[in-house]
Amino acid sequence: MPERPLHTEVVSQQELSTTAITKSTAKYLALGFLNVLLLPMMAQLLFPTDVVGPFPFPPTRNTLREFEKRLTQASGLQQYFQPRVQAFLTKTGRFGNEKVTVGKNGWLYYTPGLQYLFGRPVLEPQVLAARDKSMVDKDGVTDPHPNPLPALQQLADDCRKWGIHLIVVPVPDKAQFVPDPLGTSGQLQNPDFDKFAASLEARGAEVVRIKRENYTGQFLKQDTHWTPTLMDEVAKQLADRAAKWLTPSDVVPKFQMEKRTVSNFGDLVDLLKLPRSQQLYPPEQVVIEQVQDTASTAADVLLLGDSFSLIYSSNLLNWGESAGLGEHLALHLNRQVDRIAVNGSAATGVRQELLRAAAEGRLTQKKVIIYEFTIRDLASGDWRPIPLMDPPKLELPVLPQVIVKPSPPMKTDPLIVQGTIEFLSPPIDPANASYKEALQFGKVRITVVESGKYTDRYVIVVFRAMEDRKLLVGGQHRQGDSVHLQLVPLSQTSAEIRSMQRSDETTDYDLTPMFVVKELL
After folding, report:
1. CB 303 within 8 A of CB 334
2. Which residues contact 63 (CB under 8 A, 6 or more apart)?
3. Is the separation of the CB atoms in 323 and 312 below 8 Å?
4. Which uninterrupted H or E stretch holds 302?
């Protein structure tokens, strides 16, 4: 009878028991192991580590996560080697990272967008439960809302109460228009999109389906955003839809267009984290059409949007100014358009600003709200329901539209306060942020008003937390910190600051957000 072969584990144990390690081999192995542990720490001493700050005490899951992110950001070895290794992998094997997928012929794609297209149905209960857990564990969100339907259904209902027609514009992912460099084809879409759209249309909202066969434009090769051509074509369609709900204006502006050539690296090149001297992806060039004096808070059309609205409108994104979706929408409507747009915050941030605008009386003359957001936000956004207040009971007279040029901010006495941070929204991780600049909202209990007038006990403060992917002093605060701040209303800051990506989990919408101009000693 033949012998049964020994189990693999038994053979391994027998081989291990007969393995001999000499003293010299053991010494070299131990020294090598110690070098792996000690050399990175010694090398790190050559780099500044002020961004790390003290070790959190008492340590909690959130504070340890923040400390780990700060430690990673301060790693000089990572800053040196990661871009060079990434450049080698991208050049030799078209490897991307968790944010960027590398296509053929120099095309780059945003990975979260592909996850929306090729992933499971976004409204499936198991998918929503998994996203809820990920938002808490990975992103530090304290009250996550992964399901977009409750928030958008609420907005549709509120717009009906105000007598405002809501047009919802989910901007497609690049792969839906340019799938060939990925080795795929067809009109790609998440299985739940039609269900999502039908749910909103049942509430009276209008959902715009931007399909490739209806447009001639495309997307930028190295960027997540659309070309000026596609943006203008969408603006014209939106103008045609909005015009059906508007009355002719007594004052008709005559907007003038001016063409300008703009050159820039795409945001996906930045997210690849290649060396600054990289030559794999040269700058991309586009021609934009600028339109001046198109914005007015008194306009009867309001555009809510994100970076797709801002890319050619705000210098913050380095693709030009005064040539974005809002400007071209006004051009095709031949009337001024009000706007609220925030980079990376269309899911919740712009609706927070919409509520504040309603409290200021800014919605009383609105007839149409156009809500633009990137379609991938249906699978990755935090959709906190934010009900609007009821409209005024008294009928306000409908005033004829007038051409209003933006006026400079009113000069006010500086507001200087001392207090304690009682709440702070989760910090934005510089390593994973989609944009280079960011704001962080918090709530401060005031102990002393040194200068200016302020009567509330609490104030919502807005720190400029990140610049060029580097944490600023404002981005390193913690709950319980004592602060000494000079403040101005966020509404009086520049359009670039107001449109920055933000982390805002504050819910005190009756308080005016105040921007931190300076932190005092």
Report:
1. no
2. 56, 478
3. yes
4. strand 301-305
d(CA 393, CA 395): 6
Q: What single-letter amino acid sits at 326?
A: G
Residue 99 confidence (pLDDT) above 80: yes
Nearest to 354 by CA among 328, 385, 398: 385
Strands (E), 402-481: 415-424, 438-451, 458-467, 470-471
d(CA 13, CA 196): 58
Helix (H, G, I), strand (E, B) or coil at 92: helix
Distances in Å between the Cα of 166 and the Cα atoms of 156, 163, 198, 304, 465 are 6, 10, 14, 11, 33
DSSP notation for 217-260: --B-TTSSSBPHHHHHHHHHHHHHHHHTT-PPPSS-----EEEE
Residues in the chain: 521
R_g of the chain computed on alpha carbons:
26
Q: Is 456 helix (H, G, I), strand (E, B) or coil?
A: coil
Query: What count of other Cβ atoms lies within 10 Å of the Cβ of residue 11?
Result: 11
Write the pLDDT tens digit of every residue in 291-349.
998 999 999 999 999 999 999 999 889 999 999 999 999 999 999 999 999 999 999 99
Q: Residue holding tokens 């447009």?
A: 215
Which residues 6+ apart lie within 8 Å of 488 measured at CB? 412, 414, 415, 514, 515, 517
CA distance 376 to 429: 20
Residue 48 burial (CB count, 10 A): 9
